[in-house]
UniProtKB/TrEMBL annotation:
It comes from the Eukaryota. It comes from Morella rubra (Chinese bayberry). The keyword Coiled coil does not apply. Keywords: Oxidoreductase. SUPFAM superfamilies: GroES-like, NAD(P)-binding Rossmann-fold domains. GO terms for molecular function: 2-alkenal reductase [NAD(P)H] activity. This is 2-alkenal reductase (NADP(+)-dependent).
Amino acid sequence: MARLGDEVSNKQVIFRDYVQGYPKESDMYLTTGTIKLEVLEGSKAVLVKNLYLSCDPRMQFFMRQGETPNGYKFKPGSPVFGYGVAKVLDSGHPEFTTGDLVWGITGWEEYSLITETESLIKITHTDVPLSYYTGILGMPGMTVYAGFYEVAAPKKGEYVFVSAASGAVGQLLGQFAKLTGCYVVGSAGSKEKVDLLKNELGFDEAFNYKEEHDLNAALKRYFPEGIDVYFEHVGGKMLDAVLLNMRHNGRIAACGMISQYNIDEPEGIKNLMHIGFKWIRMQGYTHHNYYHLYPKFLDVVLPYIREKKIVDTAAQRDRRGSSFVTAYTSSHKQLQQHTDVPLSYHTGHLGMPGMAAFVGFYEVSSPKKGEYVFVSAASGAVIQLVGQFAKLSGCYVVGSAGSREKVNLVKNKFGFDDAFNYKEEDDPDAALKRPHLSLPIEVLFRSLEIWILQSLCFLFVITYFPEGIDIYFENVGGKTLDAVLPNMRLHGRIAVCGMISQYNLEQPEA
Ligand SMILES: NC(=O)c1ccc[n+]([C@@H]2O[C@H](COP(=O)([O-])OP(=O)(O)OC[C@H]3O[C@@H](n4cnc5c(N)ncnc54)[C@H](OP(=O)(O)O)[C@@H]3O)[C@@H](O)[C@H]2O)c1
C-alpha cells in the first residue's frame, strides 16, 4: 500500500486536443504517469485519491476553443477534469485534513494534486452512498435545488414538464415535483428510460420524444390544460413545441439545451411570441450561483434520501455509454473497502470480468498442473486473467489475439508461454498445402475464403499444440472453435465464456 512521500504510478485520462462538433472517445487517451504523494511545504494544495468521477454534459464545452461556461477549458496534454468524490491524502489547506472525504472538481486520474480548491466541499454525511455526491448531493442536485426552489417554484397541483427527464438533473426534478404534489410528465429518448420514469421514479406520464412526429400534438395529449412549469434541458424543437403549450403565468427554468451543443448552426425558435402572449417568465440559471444554499439544500434533501422518498439512479449507473468513459467513471460503480488497489480494477480484475475468469477457471474447467491450455481473445479483460491463473497453476498456456501489440502483451506482460495473431499468416499458401487439411473439418468449408481462414486457425492450433489441447477457454466461436475441436485431447474441457465473432452476424456460422 502506498504511503505519503512515495512516488506511485498514476493512471490518467489525457485530453488530446481541441475539438469541433461531437466529442469522440479518441479525443482522449489513457496513460500512466507518476505522482509523489505529498503536498509541498507552504502550498495550500490538497492531494487526493479519486474515488468517483462523473461525466457531465458541460464537459464537452471544455473541449473547445473559444468561450466556455465559467471559463473552464481542458488543456491539451493534461488530464480531463470534472466533478468527483475523493479522499484527502495530504493537505496544505487549513480547511482539509488527511482522511477527509470531499467532492468537487478533480482530475480524471487515480491521484490529483488540487491547487484550485474553491470547488471542494467536505463530505460530512457518509450514511448515504458516496456516489450520490456526483449526483443528487453534488452538482446536479444543487442545480435541481436552484431550478426548483429558486427559479420556477412549482406549487401543488401545477402541471410540470421535464425534458431529458431520465438524466441526472431531470430525474431529480421530476421527483421533487411529485413530492410537491404536481402532475409531472417527462420526455426521454428510449423505451427503457420512459419505463424508468414511470415505474421507478414516479412520474405520472412519460414519452419517447424520438417516436413523436409532432411534439406539439404529444404535449397536447399529456397536457390538455397546458403546462405551468417547464424544466428546459434540450432546447430546439422541444422548446418551440412547449411554448405553444404553456399556460398563462407559466415559468420556464432554462437549465440547459443539450440538443444545441454540438451543431454547427443552432436551431431558431419560432414561437417566442408566446412568452409575451401568456406572460411567461423564462429564466436561465447555473448551479454556480447558489452554493451559499448548500447547507439548506442538504437539510431538505438528506431526509428525502434517508426516507427513500427520492432516489438517484443516475449516480449508480453509467449514463453516457462510452466504453472509455465507462471505464473511468468508476464513479457509477459502488466502491468497496479495497481502495489500496487501482480503482479501475473494480471494472476489471476485481469486478465482473474477474468474477467471470474466476468462475470459468476454478468452477468450470479446473486445469491441473502440466495441462495444455488454449485461450482465445487472450488480451481481453476476462481471458488475460484466465491465462495468468493457468500459468500460476503450472499449465502450458497459449493465447490468440488480433494484433502484434496484443500478442506481445500476452507473451511479455502476462507470461503466456506463447501467443499468435489469428489475423495474420505470412504464408497462406503454405497453410493451404498442409496435409492436415484433409481432416473431417474440411467438410464444413463453404467457400474458398472461409477455407483459407479456417485452415489458418487450424494450422495455428496444431502448430502450438502438437500433443493436443486439454482445456480451451472459448470466447470467439466460429472458425476458431471449429479448428480447436479436432485438436482436443481425451477428457478435454471447453469452458464456453462467449462467442464474440458471432454476435453481430446476420446468420451465425454453422
Ligand atoms: N445550469 C446548470 O447549472 C446545469 C447543471 C447541470 C446540467 N445542466 C444541463 O442540464 C441538462 C441535463 O444535464 P444532466 O446532467 O441531467 O445530463 P445527463 O444525465 O448526461 O443526461 C443528458 C440526457 O440528455 C438527453 N439528450 C442528449 N442529446 C439530446 C438531444 N439532442 N435532444 C434531446 N435530448 C438529448 C439524453 O437522454 P435521452 O436519451 O432522453 O435523449 C441524455 O441522457 C443539460 O442540458 C446540461 O447541460 C445545467
